[in-house]
Every structure is written in C-alpha cells, then in structure tokens.
Specification:
With 305 residues, the chain is of the alpha/beta class. It is 44% helix and 21% strand. Mean pLDDT is 92; it is low at 230-235.
Amino acid sequence: MLDVSIIVVNWNARELLCRCLQCVESTVRRASYEIIVVDNGSTDGSQEMVKRDFPKTRLIENTQNIGFAAANNQGMAISQGRYVLLLNSDAFVKEGTIDTMVAFMDAHPDAGMAACKLLYEDGTVQPSVTRFPTLETEFYTAVGLEKLFPNSPVFGKYMMRYWDHNDAREVDVIMGAFMLARQEAIEQVGRMDASFFMYSEEVDWCYRFKQAGWKIYSTPEVEAIHIWGGTSRQVRAEMLVQLYRSRVQFFRKHYGSASVRLLKLILGLNFGVRVVLGYPVTWLLPQALPKHVAFRRLLVSLPDF
C-alpha cells in the first residue's frame, strides 16, 4: 500500500498546477506516493499539460466545474494511500514537507488530520488554522473587533492570530490548501460533503472528524508556500458571495435553524456596515468598487441563503 495519495483539484490554473506538481516530484524522497489530478473542466490547456509533462499522474477529466469537495471526493474514491493529501494547485511543498508530514502522522495515531505551516511567497506566516465559527466569532467580525484586536485571544480567537505557528498543537480547522488525512479516519467519517460547492467544506470535514473523536494537528516542522486565492481570484465577487453562503450552510447543518436566524442578523449588520462605509472608499479607490458591489449583493440576497 502506498504511503500517501496526493490529490490536486484544478480549474484553469495551468501554470500554478505545473509548479505544484514539479514541487511534489522534486521534494518527496522517502514516502511512496501517487498523484491524482482532478481537473474541473479547464479550458486553459491544463489537462494537456498534465498528460504531456506528468505522464505518471492519474488524471480525472471533468467536463465542468463540479466544485472543490466533489472533485476531491472523486480523487479519494480511487486513492490507494494510507494517507490522503489534499493539496491546492496554488500550494508548493518544500524539501521534506510530505515525507515529514507522513512521519508525523505515523507518530500520532490519534491524528485524523494534520497540516504543515503555510507561508506567503515572501516567507511570512500565512494564517491557516482557525477555530470553528460561532455566533460569537461572527459578531466580533461584524462589528470590527476582530480587525481592531487581531491578536486578542478573545476578539481574534477565530483566526488565532495570537499564535505564532511555531509549536505543534491540536487545532479545530486546517486550511484546505494542505490537508493530510488518515485513510482509516476517512472511511469512518466519510468524504467531503459535496453540497458545499466551495468554501466551508474543509470546516465541515474537520468538524465531523472532531465529532468522531479524531484529533487535528498543525505542526511547524515543515512548510509549504501558498498563494492565497491563486485560483479563486479569477471570480472574486462570486467567490465572496459563495463564501458567506457556505458559512450559513455550515451553521444550518451543525448548529440548527435558530443559530442560522441569528447568524443572518449578524451578517446583515456586517454587510450593511461595509456597504455604508464603502461608498466613500470607492470614490478614492475605484478598484474597491467590485468588492463593494459584492457586499451590496450579499445584503440583498441574504434572506435567500
């Protein structure tokens, strides 16, 4: 049995995907692995590039974008590794990253998932772990307390910016850019919920792992570079809408209808404040207009979430 199956979901990110796959092939030394690329109907030549430049990679060619969760599930369905690594096409592993993470999981049999430290391209630490979202954390975001006091263990607890990521610890949620999951745990918990088209699918998955008794770890031993939004930036306004729609979906699934009603009130406050304060900003910074329009759309469509 292979040590790890590396699943990369791609959508029109040929150059990033090429760099991602090159990093894997040039840095894994000890672990036995396979690479599975699930392409969500790309039109930029991604599929041809994989066939030409990475012939050993197993390629699933979808004719349309079926979403991040559903595509990862396709990869997991044919995976043969003891572990499954969900790796974003805009994430680039460093020397020893995957080998060390496999060894970490072997040394922690209680771990259902684990993540390495993620960095921006300039080498600074990227916030890549969070607490589970709650009404409390959503309120702190809505009224601006999270932004005013990002390093506060209270107001900044959701993004955990008070933590320097320099020690290994158990966490709630790890970013979907690098998620190393135990196959045994996946078989118990199930794969990702494909009803989450994009965003919150990893939060939901982590929540289910925790509910089943598995631990989730983040370790600073090794690192990977992650270009935040490298693929989703192509449709930023749409992705912003999807982000909050998925958040409501998560609350509805795990916290119940009463929490959803309260969440919508909090989000309405959040969007309203951003729309009002955003008007003068768009005059000074025209590039802020698309995001401002997106928040207006969010405010209008919130009841339908």
